[in-house]
Amino acid sequence: MSGQAVISINEDEWAVSLATTYTELTTGLSEVESIPAGTGMLFILPARQLVTVDTSQMLFPIDIIFIKDDAVLDVASNIQPGYLVEEATPCDMFLEINAGEAAGVEVGDSVSTATIQQPGFDFSQITSFAIPLALLGFVCAMAGGMARSIGGELIK
């Protein structure tokens, strides 16, 4: 995971893993057998957007708290595995926790986040970009060399 934080809403707190990379954001808690009470995963989106949560690969029921501007936007409770949950309003983040743990959380409640472990640098994203870029540079260098060779022969 990219890091860890503590999320507080009202009197409730959850120790969460942060999902920030593409893989983490799309995989989430899929195929995880269970999580301890008082824990979860906070999905930090790259930009405010509409969200669809796919629970088809989930192995346990969850509550989902959608967050916008450090306030609860919506709460989806007791979502069983195998469903799609769509949030109709763009959000900044969303929190997946064990089913029943969002009881008492209401729209408009204030959300605070305290990061306890900063995310490390994800080199997998660089390699997926750098290798094709290096290959493109190599091809351009070869094409440039061939063009100089052909151009040199035409000038003579």
What does this structure look like?
- The chain contains two helices and seven strands, in the order E-E-H-E-E-E-E-E-H.
- With 156 residues, the chain is of the alpha+beta class.
- It has two domains: 4-120, Sandwich (Jelly Rolls), CATH 2.60.120; 123-156.
- A seven-stranded mixed sheet has the order 5-4-6-3-2-1-7.
- The longest helix has 33 residues, at 123-155.
- The protein starts with a strand and ends with a helix.
In helices, the fraction of residues equals: 25-40%
Lateral arrangement of strands in the main beta sheet:
5-4-6-3-2-1-7
Largest sheet: 7 strands, mixed
Give the class from helix and strand content and strand pairing.
alpha+beta
Number of helices: 2
User: Distance N terminus to C terminus?
Assistant: 62 Å
CATH C-level category of the largest domain: Mainly Beta
Strand content: 35-45%
**CATH topology annotation of the largest domain:** Jelly Rolls
Inertia-based shape: elongated
The Rg value, from CA coordinates, equals 23 Å
Mean pLDDT level: 85
How does the SSE layout of this entry go?
Blueprint: E1 4-9, E2 12-19, H1 22-27, E3 39-54, E4 62-68, E5 71-79, E6 84-98, E7 111-117, H2 123-155
Keywords: Membrane, Transmembrane, Transmembrane helix
InterPro entries: DUF192 (IPR003795), Saro_0823-like_sf (IPR038695)
Pfam families: DUF192 (PF02643)
